[in-house]
Design goal:
By secondary structure, the protein is an alpha/beta fold. The protein contains 17 helices and 11 strands. The protein binds magnesium ion.
């Protein structure tokens, strides 16, 4: 039995991960669950999967959970959630935002397999996470569909030979506003931004998909995971979301991974790698799909992508500032305080004002993140 710690169990990825566990009950056992708040869903998950430990970030919520399950070990606060990074054989990290950084570091320090869905942790502190993983020998497997696709293409190449990689090509659906002008975008509402055409996801990532910042964060994520510089990472709009990403090798060959869009594939592969096992996915019938389209990204009306390339190039704390400022701006947009187009403007101003720290420590990154969130 492989034991799992699932951080962010009530979110979209966490729920899909528990679906995968249900399908492979003979193979996986849930040791620990963490969520931000108490909810009936969390209580149901504890009932169904009987973990040894649960963590709830909100202390009042932790008390409520403890009252329901007196024999369960319940931890609270950010430290309580982060401590679950040291539990189980595999840590599936799916909390939103920079809150994932400490649990990710805990997981790699304790040599767990880290199945990582929290891209903000890799964006803000990717260099620290990768360095710790190298030191401890911890494995990091991507749960993001694009990065899982790249991982699968690299594995299919069968060699660990970074010099053979010419390009990583990350596909993007283009989100709900593909083809729209900046004037149109000025007045879009949070409800419109949350209506993603392909994927059902949490709120923050849905808005990030609408601004294209999600793809920007994914460029940085790919750079950290595969140690490939920004110049060799391209973004390709692909509205059908069937080709999940591609790798071009130095001889000109491109490998791609195709499947119907379903997060459970990337989650399951991260849990069972190097094995492949049966999954709930429907088989992809390309003659039914009919056509696959590809376009270059629109960098004029969606400036977030270029801001991410800029942050990656600047290095230091710039990616952490990009990610923190974006989290803040997305929150403000969802609460109706700023317009859609003000999201990238806020991020840009923060990048302009950010301190230059070439080799940041964890403290530097946390400081840069709080600087990025301050109201301008
Ligand atoms: Mg993705």
């Amino acid at each position: 039995m492989t034991s799992l710690a699932i951080l962010g169990s009530t979110g979209s990825i966490g729920r899909s991960a528990l679906d995968v566990v249900r399908l492979h009950a003979e193979r996986f056992q849930v040791k620990a669950l963490a969520a931000g708040h108490f909810s009936e869903l969390l209580a149901d998950q504890v009932r169904e999967f009987s973990p040894e430990i649960a963590a709830v970030k909100d202390p009042a919520g932790a008390k409520e959970l403890q009252k329901l399950f007196p024999s369960l070990t319940v931890r609270s606060g950010s430290e309580g959630v982060a401590s679950l990074g040291c539990e189980g054989d595999i840590v599936l990290l799916a909390v939103v935002g920079v809150a994932g950084l400490q649990p990710a570091l805990n997981a790699v320090k304790s040599k767990k397999r880290l199945a990582i869905a929290t891209k903000e942790a890799l964006v803000s502190g990717g260099e620290l996470i990768m360095a710790e993983a190298k030191r401890s020998g911890a494995e990091i497997l991507p749960v993001d569909s694009e990065h899982s696709a790249i991982f699968q293409c690299l594995a299919a190449n069968g060699r660990k030979a970074p010099e053979e990689i010419a390009k990583l090509i990350i596909t993007a659906s283009g989100g709900p506003f593909r083809g729209k002008s900046a004037e149109y975008l000025e007045n879009v509402t949070p409800e419109e931004a949350l209506a993603h055409p392909v994927w059902r996801m949490g709120k923050k990532i849905s808005v990030d998909s609408a601004t294209m910042m999600n793809k920007g964060l994914e460029v940085i994520e790919a750079s950290r995971l595969y140690n490939v510089p920004g110049e060799k990472i391209k973004v390709l709009i692909h509205p059908q979301s069937i080709v999940h990403s591609l790798v071009e090798f130095v001889d000109g060959a491109q490998l791609a991974q195709l499947s119907l869009p379903d997060m459970r594939l990337a989650i399951q592969y991260a849990l069972t790698f190097p094995e492949r096992t049966k999954s709930p996915l429907r088989s992809l019938n390309l003659s039914e799909v009919g056509k696959l389209e590809f376009f270059p990204p629109d960098l004029v009306n969606f400036p977030s992508l270029e801001l991410a390339y800029r942050a990656l190039k600047e290095g230091g704390v710039a990616p952490a500032v990009l990610s923190g400022a974006n989290e803040r701006a997305v929150g403000d947009f969802l609460e109706g305080r700023i317009s859609f187009n003000q999201i990238p403007r806020f991020v840009e101003r923060k990048l302009d004002a950010a301190p230059r720290i070439p080799k940041p420590t964890l403290e530097d990154i946390i400081m840069a993140d709080s600087f990025a969130r301050e109201r301008a």
